[in-house]
């Protein structure tokens, strides 16, 4: 049987600029890595992916190989899964039911929020997927399943993350093994120095392979720490997910730090989503509460998006660099490959050098952005592919209109 993970037209800016929705890190995994890991030993289940964005597909094809990319020749009985689907007990239960007892006709399943989450297609998969990715659904029978959900808003990744860490730990318990610490589980070998306190009163702590946790530090569950992560001394991490190959320290609360990111010094990151290949300078503060204790809205340039949340940090795209001593206000968006100095009291477009103390914005030239990204990736043991470089160039062109509206200056940066 085929499982096809698809990306629809709904994007979560800025964290989907350089990646598909099914590769957004949350809980313990992203959608693609979860299903790849779950069915890695099965010769009866094949995993494919598809996105309506050609530049994303080119990068995926170069990285995953053509055997993982859905094409129109793969037209037999298939389970389709929305890349925004939330991996929880209800989703896994439904998938197991379909795999065990496949329906005799096409079936579509929506969640509590009415988003299409799962489908089972027995014929003409190609036409159906094309309709879905164009947001045109031709089948009238959609079954609502209680507990089935998709990420609708960008802040859902933050508000649901602690619950998802617990859910993922339960779903993947056969991959975890006990440690000497109560309710602390490891996926491989770990090194923990003296004076590290693990508090699992509110949930488990899961630590990936080859992690190194320096003491003294305090980690509170539910928290997930991915493979090859370094936690520096004096860290205080609670209710957060730390992506693989990252180095973090300071205080991190109710946040998601994506893979290959650095925030090793004393900073505060609260209720925020941090993308890949981000560097956060020492003494940076991500504010997450208003003095008035009022609602924090998402500031998306020329529009305000109501969240009904009184606690919310920022959303930082991939390849962002934040200088030492910077303050990032709650509800702000920092676009991909942007450099931030001093403060961000408003959302900043992609490929921008923002001088917060002077309220001036200069365009980060694409060649400079790519060279900077390559250097950082090299430090993480990664090499930028030609397809990824082209993806960055495409995003640079597509986000020009944002920079124009913002008043970004093209030319030499004047500090």
Describe the structure.
The chain is α/β, with parallel strands linked by helices and 415 residues long. α2 runs antiparallel to α8. 21% of the residues lie in helices and 25% in strands. Strands 7-8-11-14-17-20-23-28-31 form a nine-stranded mixed beta sheet, with helices on one face. The model has no long low-confidence stretch (mean pLDDT 94). 47% of the residues are buried.
Secondary structure layout:
Layout: E1 2-6, H1 31-38, E2 46-50, H2 54-64, E3 78-82, H3 89-100, E4 107-110, E5 116-121, H4 125-133, E6 142-144, H5 156-159, H6 161-171, E7 177-178, E8 184-186, E9 190-192, E10 196-199, E11 205-207, E12 211-213, E13 217-220, E14 223-225, E15 230-231, E16 236-238, E17 241-242, E18 247-248, E19 251-253, E20 256-257, E21 262-263, E22 268-270, E23 273-274, E24 279-280, E25 285-286, E26 298-300, E27 303-305, E28 315-316, E29 321-322, E30 327-328, E31 333-334, E32 339-341, E33 343-344, E34 352-355, E35 360-363, H7 366-379, H8 386-398, H9 400-406
Parallel strand pairs: 1-2, 1-3, 4-6, 8-11, 9-12, 10-13, 11-14, 12-15, 13-16, 14-17, 15-18, 16-19, 17-20, 18-21, 19-22, 20-23, 22-25, 23-28, 24-29, 25-30, 28-31, 29-32, 30-33, 32-34
Antiparallel strand pairs: 3-5, 4-5, 7-8, 26-27, 34-35
Helix pairs in contact: 2-8
